[in-house]
Amino acid sequence: MRRALNILVVAALVLATGCAMRAETELKKLKVGMTQAEVEKVLGKPVSTKCVRFPAYQRDYLVWEYMMVPERKLVCPSEGAARILSGVATLGLSEIAWTHAQAKPHWVYFLDGIMVYAGLGFDCSQPNTCTIHEQGSDLSCR
Fold first, then answer.
1. Strand pairing class (21-22; 61-69)
2. Are 103 and 68 in contact (CB under 8 A)?
3. Would you kindly state where each structural domain of the chain is located, as residue ranges?
4. Residue 49 near residue 137, CB atoms below 8 Å
5. Helix-helix angle 2-17:93-102, to 10 degrees
6. pLDDT 10s digit of each residue in the chain, 142 long?
7. pTM
């Protein structure tokens, strides 16, 4: 019985670590020039889509937003030990909460249906960064 419980705890931890996409790992799979269908095949459907314009450019980018956990090294061994212990004690639920709390918006940019860039998303509410525009009914930017 104890062995089965140990296997269950380890399985829960393994499953919990896979709940959120890791930004660096996933974005490395993308290549400039990919089509929207190719990006969707790699990353799946985006959480949201939007049209974004940056001050220096005269065109809107179609942006697909994904929530991903930025790559981060453990600061010290005690952090890793604390995460493992809390993960075991909560059967992996704390690890799920931790990964979702760490997730940040990452954007994939398209022009004319072709991917041109992917990276951490911008906060367009900050002055002079970007503006978000309406999308057309065909999911393209006007």
1. parallel
2. yes
3. 2-133
4. no
5. 10
6. 766 545 544 444 444 444 456 788 889 999 999 999 999 999 999 999 999 999 988 899 999 999 998 765 545 555 555 556 665 665 555 444 454 457 899 999 999 999 999 999 989 988 889 999 877 666 678 6
7. 0.67
